[in-house]
Structures are given as structure tokens and as C-alpha cells.
């Protein structure tokens, strides 16, 4: 089987595509269920994200008369495709090593903003004033949370590069080599120098996933879904699927960066272990925070991300540099 065909299968079936979508929807359904129980509510069933998306796929596609038609239609497709490709780069330790062994941190860093960009493009193309307001909020928030992410990835690349190169200065941006190195020497999440970076990553997750308290661009009570206001039917279903894929990608990336250890030579056990670690990351960084906080203002969210997570990531960078 050619490398190109194998890469396409990875993007469509496993670990991207169907598998990532199923895991993402399961995590989103479990997140809503646990949040409801923490707030003493019954909550929706675990299959609710599937039901919502399936219902949207049966609806009619409506396009505003004043919208830029082609851009409005292509924006959700662009976001979904970007996340499907990104999901194929995420290694599952003990099961899957990465897309053509090219799990490059820089490639992932450039692919991760695609859903936010698609949301901004779609919102601006809808010609809705709420979409334009959501566009500006999303852009400002993305500039804020992408800064600590870059610093986190640099800290991981530097500590792995110095160790792999035997103490020589440099950085290792191959996610495959970083995962393999941690499996030999220990998880970075347990390294003193990298604990601030881990905390910064946990703070980064709710912002990039657009959940409370950082759901500012789509605030229902303020700008009635903002960029998504004019979307419905299959197009809105594509945005829902993109969100599910992004949930899998970010949780899987967190496991690969900080806790990529395996516990068995049998791949089904390692797959379950990987999903359990993703689940713990989700509960700690998303579910508990959602159930206990209200929505930030955009200025509060921007100041928060350029201070606390940036300071934590910078602390890890300095510790890695001086060690």
C-alpha cells in the first residue's frame, strides 16, 4: 500500500476521521453529562451530540441573501478538513506512531488554528453584524491563547532536543521522537521543569475549544451564537463535527506531550489507556471549570491568557534553558 493511500486512510478512518469523530462526540456527551451532575441536574444522554448532528444533517441548508455564498459554504468544509488532517498527526502510544512518522509539532501548531479561522471566515461571510462581532472576538482570543501554546511546544521541543542530543543545544520538533524518548526516560508531566507548562496547557484547552468561561465569540446570551448565527442544517453539523475532532486532537496532543507512557504490549489495552488519560485531561481542564465559572468578558480573557499561562510557559522555558 502506497504511503499516500495509507495517509488518506489515517485521515478518514483511524486515528482521524471516523475514530476521532466518535471519540470526540463521546467526550463532548460525557462532558455535558458530568457537568450537569456537578450542577445537580440530570443532563442529556451520552448520545446527544450524535443526535443533534444527525438531526442537523436532515435539515435544509439556508443561505442569507446578502451572504458571500461560496465562502459561506466552504468555511465549515475548510475547518473540518483541517482537523481531520491534524487528527492523523496525533500519535497514540503503543498503537499508532503518527502520519508517515512526520508528527511535527510545527505542522500541528499551524493546523490547530484552522477551525477558528474557518469560524471567522464563515461569520464574516454571513453578512450578519453578530458574525462580524464574533469574528473580532475570536481573532483577539486566538491571538491570546496561541502565544502560550507556542511557548509550551518550544519548552517540550527544547528539553527533548537537549536530552536526545546528549546535552547539546537544540530543539526536537518530531512528535514521534519526543514520544519515544519519553517512553524511555519518563513522562514530561512528572518533570519538575515541565509542570508549569502542563498547567499552562490545561489552561489553554478551554480557550481554544471555546467553552465556558471562554465561549465569548459565540456567547448565546450576548451575540446569539455570533459567527454561527446564520448557519443551520448540514453546514452547522460540519461545525459540530469539527469541534468534536478538535476535542480529540487537543486532548490527544496533551497526552502525547506530557503522558505518553504505555502499560501493555497489547494494543487494545494501550488504546483504552490513552483514552482514559484524555478523559482525565478533559475533566480537569474543561468539565470542572465549565461547571464552576461564568463567562469572561473579552478584555478579561485576553489579559488572562497573556499573563498567567504565558508566565507558566515562560517559567518552563527558563527552567529547561538553565537545567
Automatic annotation (TrEMBL):
GO CC terms:
plasma membrane
The transmembrane segments are 6-27, 72-93, 105-127, 139-160, 193-214, 235-259, 271-289, 301-322
Q: Spell out the subcellular localization from the entry.
A: Membrane
Q: Which UniProt keywords apply?
A: Membrane, Transmembrane, Transmembrane helix
What's its membrane topology?
Multi-pass membrane protein
Q: Which domain of life is it from?
A: Bacteria
Q: Does the keyword Transmembrane apply?
A: yes
What Pfam families does the entry give? Answer: NADHdh (PF00146)
Q: Name the PANTHER family for this protein.
A: FORMATE HYDROGENLYASE SUBUNIT 4 (PTHR43359), FORMATE HYDROGENLYASE SUBUNIT 4-RELATED (PTHR43359:SF1)
Protein name in UniProt = H+-translocating [NiFe] hydrogenase complex, transmembrane subunit CooK
Amino acid at each position: 500500500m502506497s504511503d499516500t493511500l495509507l495517509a488518506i486512510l489515517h485521515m478518514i478512518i483511524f486515528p482521524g476521521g471516523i475514530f476521532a469523530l466518535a471519540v470526540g462526540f463521546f467526550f463532548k456527551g460525557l462532558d455535558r453529562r458530568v457537568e450537569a451532575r456537578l450542577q445537580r441536574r440530570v443532563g442529556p444522554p451520552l448520545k446527544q451530540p450524535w443526535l443533534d448532528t444527525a438531526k442537523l444533517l436532515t435539515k435544509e441548508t439556508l443561505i442569507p441573501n446578502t451572504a458571500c455564498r461560496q465562502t459561506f459554504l466552504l468555511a465549515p468544509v475548510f475547518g473540518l478538513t483541517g482537523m481531520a488532517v491534524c487528527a492523523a498527526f496525533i500519535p497514540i502510544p503503543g498503537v499508532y506512531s503518527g502520519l508517515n512518522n512526520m508528527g511535527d509539532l510545527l505542522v500541528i501548531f499551524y493546523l490547530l488554528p484552522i477551525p477558528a479561522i474557518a469560524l471567522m471566515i464563515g461569520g464574516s461571510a454571513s453578512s450578519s453584524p453578530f458574525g462580524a462581532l464574533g469574528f473580532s472576538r475570536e481573532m483577539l482570543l486566538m491571538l491570546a491563547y496561541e502565544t502560550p501554546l507556542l511557548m509550551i511546544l518550544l519548552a517540550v521541543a527544547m528539553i527533548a532536543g537537549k536530552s536526545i542530543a546528549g546535552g547539546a543545544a537544540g530543539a526536537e520538533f518530531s512528535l514521534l521522537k519526543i514520544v519515544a524518548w519519553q517512553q524511555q526516560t519518563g513522562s514530561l508531566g512528572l518533570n519538575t521543569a515541565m509542570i508549569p507548562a502542563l498547567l499552562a496547557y490545561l489552561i489553554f484547552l478551554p480557550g481554544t475549544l471555546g467553552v465556558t468561561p471562554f465561549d465569548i465569540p459565540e456567547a448565546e446570551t450576548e451575540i446569539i451564537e455570533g459567527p454561527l448565527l446564520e448557519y443551520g442544517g448540514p453546514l452547522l453539523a460540519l461545525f459540530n463535527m469539527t469541534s468534536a475532532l478538535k476535542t480529540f486532537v487537543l486532548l490527544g496532543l496533551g497526552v502525547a506531550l506530557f503522558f505518553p507512557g504505555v502499560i501493555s504490549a497489547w494494543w487494545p489495552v494501550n488504546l483504552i489507556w490513552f483514552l482514559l488519560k484524555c478523559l482525565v485531561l478533559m475533566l480537569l481542564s474543561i468539565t470542572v471549570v465549565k461547571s464552576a465559572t461564568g463567562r469572561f468578558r473579552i478584555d478579561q480573557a485576553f489579559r488572562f491568557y497573556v499573563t498567567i499561562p504565558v508566565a507558566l510557559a515562560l517559567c518552563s522555558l527558563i527552567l529547561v534553558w538553565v537545567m
